[in-house]
Amino acid sequence: MLFTKRALVALVGVAAVIASVAPQVAQAAPQTARVAQVAQAAGDELERITPPVDPGKPPQDQMVLAVIGDYGGCGVDRACASENQVADMVHSWNPAAILTVGDNTYQQGRPEEVVKAQAPYKADIDAGKFFPIMGNHDYGNGCNPESVKPSVDYFKVPVAFVAGFGNGLVDFLNPDVNCNSGSGTTKPPIYNQYKNTVDGSTAAWVVSGGHQPIYSSGKAGNNPDKAWLMTPGVDLILAGHDHHAEHVVTSDGYNIAITGNSGEGLTPLFSTAPGSVYREATEFGAMRLTVTKDSLKAEFVTLPNKVDYYFILKKDAQGKAYVAERSDWVDPNPDPGQSPTPNKYSVSFDLAADTTDGLTYKNYDDGPFEETTVDGRKALQLQKNTFGGANQLYMFVDDDAISGGPYAVKATFTYRSPVPGTFALQYDSATSGSAYQKSTPVTIGADQVNQWRTASIDIPDIRFTNRENGNADMRLSAPANLPLAISGVKIDVAPPKPTVTHVSMDFSGEPNGLNWMPYESGPAHEITVDGRQALQVDKNTFNTGNNLYLVVDDKFIHGGPYDGAATIEYRSPVAGSFVLQYDSAATGSAYQSTTRVSITAGQVNTWQTVTLDMPQVMFRNRQNGDADMRIVAANNLPIIIGSMDVDIAGGEDEGLEDAQNAVAAAEAHPSVETIKAAEAAIAKLPAGPDAAALTQRLNAVKAILAAADLTAAREAVAAAEAHPSIETIKAAEAAIAKLPAGPDADWLTQRLDVVKATFNDTDNDGIDNDVDVTFPPGTSQASNPTNETFSDALVDGTTSGKIVSRNGHTLAISDAHNSSGVLVNVGSGSGPAKFQLVGSGATIALGQGFYELTGSGKTSTITTVDGEQAIVTVSVNGTPITLTVGKGGSVSYTEASANDKVTGLTGIQRTGTVNVRADGIPETACAGIAIQNVIVATTGNNQIFGTAADDLIIGRGGNDTVTGDGGSDCVITGSGNDQITTTGGDDWIDAGGGNNVVRASAGDNTVITASGNDQITTGDGDDTINAGGGNNTVNAGGGVDTVTTAGGNDTIDCGAGSDAAHAGGGNNTNVGKRCETFGL
Which of 708, 733, 758 finishes a domain? Predict the structure, then answer.
């Protein structure tokens, strides 16, 4: 719905009013007080609600801004005290403006709630100093324009805007993050306006705000669907939603500041988010920004007015913000979410048994079901999801049973389906940060239909934080609207592995992880008995049971459950009995009794020892005084304790686990080092089937490495034979040295000896005599035949000269980048000459003829004036890139560098025939694309942005996110789960192995993937799609498309046009039967 703007005051009038109220915010005040549009404003940029920069005046020298979030609890008459205290503190700073990060009003953003929630800040709102972001509570926990209207009317700002402060000092961007989510590389509708606003900003500092944080250590956790906020040019990202304070520095260098602690309660921390350098969840507060042209200081201030932490941003030579200084902060509770302890270790529901234990289910819009009876068994019959895709069942774990995380769990399902298909569990993953991480799927084969079956899925990192739709913790997802019936689900939490398996105490030395503690119902004192130290349990004045409370140090053993045993050394002056009481996961009792121990008359005043079993024992400090267990002596028995040991089962054998991990590392990265490490780990295992199986796996790795070494040695010797030089001979010797003694090494050594015998280098300059450089008699060079660099070969203004170098030898020309250029005459010979440009990463191989080399710095132009082809080779992030210039052609390019390393080639211009290739990619790649830029990623997980021109983008393994920006792009990524999005042009994409998401826009595209479960979407155009093995989903747009898949259960939608799909083995689906040809 569109609401009409109502101009209340003319712009000049507003400026005058603001000037009289707050002179330092003259630029910040809204241009007009109005009811804003809830729909996103049309246009290329976000709507600017403050006056434009006055170019005749300089930016303000310094200003203070305040940031608050999640503060409006007064709206429902709660947390008013903390909200008012924070407001008083903020006002004491006299800020030029107050920015919010959402949830300004609780609970539903109703008109009466808004008025009450904003009371502490009404004067700021009336003065035009208040700039709010709308959060989920402001929207009434939806994205309905009607529900947010009370807030829009009250604040008189649109839901998305940009506001400027200090006449070009700061721009604050609010792109309505709560109602704009991305997916992978797919951006929300508002993104282009947001990015254009960032790109068009002339402010010294660009600050963006969004309610939900991209990364957070709090209850809501990471929100990868908001990652689009991280756009080049943004200096600081503000967020809230989680009710705590946090500073996160991402791997890409973005700074995220969470300020959700400004009044409406505090929420606990869970697993530490990647890059988190400060976290505070115990005090209310706000953030103070002190901004100058050269620096931005962010201070996290807690009540009553204490700076708990700060950081200062400055900008590097490229204009990118970086942390120049920050507080020395030490985490008082490092990573509290890494080893959580649930109150229950198992939750379930079973319709057949009519039981529910900590796990429930509810209908939801995209997860409907009906309770029914299937084949005589009560069950939930999943109904068709009218929103498309998968049938779903939303499930909820009782927070009192299990909360937070992460946990390793086993999920067990009792299910039945009338047709083949698959289903999986989608859960909140601590590793990926996704609230809908897909588990390993369960496959229902044709021979398994119409049968009640049971399957289990292991999940390593689930969190229970109610982050899914309807505050669910997880959902079962059955693709292709599989009519699945569910009778029961059980979630079992795996107990954490203990740090140690043994703790003990005696009284002759220091305790070893076990100690006693005094308590009002458990007094005791140390005594000496028979010459040894012991502990006398004193009389309990509250009842007839004498208690001794015991504590296990959490750093030794914590959580559980474990199968344990306690060994107690004791004596008593009289006959009687005692028990040990412990926290039992099996019964839920914190005071579960072991077998009773009796002390007979014959055992009086003698030391005795007993071992007591404690099945499913927990260590979570649930007894009085936070004790873990206690000894209870009946009838006030005056028992004496000499020593005590507690032992628990340690779970998996650590040696076996270490060996398994070492072999897996060798399999993933075969090398001499990883193989030696695996051999050492296996050597520690006892002889048996485990050691034998691991040895067999490692032998296979050795065979792979040996084959790779042999291939490398053969190639090195062949290179030395083709281009004899000191370098190629040494490289071949090093490669042969890696081979084991044997016929292969002997034969390659003989071949290399022949090369050495024919290689003559009289002047020892590394160049064979037959191809050495010669100079005219009488020149300075002639008297120095051992000159290795030949940097003086073309000096003193010389623009021509005769240089002869053959068979791969490299010469450096120091003045190759003179503005006047260098004209090179390459004489006759059997092979190309090579020139290395000084100060450049490029090597140029020239055939016979004349060539002109010009340029400046990292920009070069090579012209084949009257010569054969020239081959330019540049190492870009370790990947050789070759530019082959045909006869009579030329190429110009610029080397982009970072940290003294070439990272890309930009602005490639050409005349004539110029071919751009990358080492190792197929000859058929990039067909028909005139590449203008080359971008090569580093190894690891990268976020890569293309340009509007025709790009060659190369990933080097890892989980890469590639975003093209127009043009015809050639994108090649290695193994890993990649997300590739291109826009416009005829693109050529090879996503390699892994579970990839590829979105190619309109154009005649070629998309290739290897094994993995891939999602491929193309726009209109004649597309060629080759998907490897795996369960692939292909959506082709209009045009004449050809789709080919390998084995796996593929879902193919060919879209409009005359299309052909060649689907390999598996259960394949022709969506809407829009593939005119379908099958093998």
Answer: 758
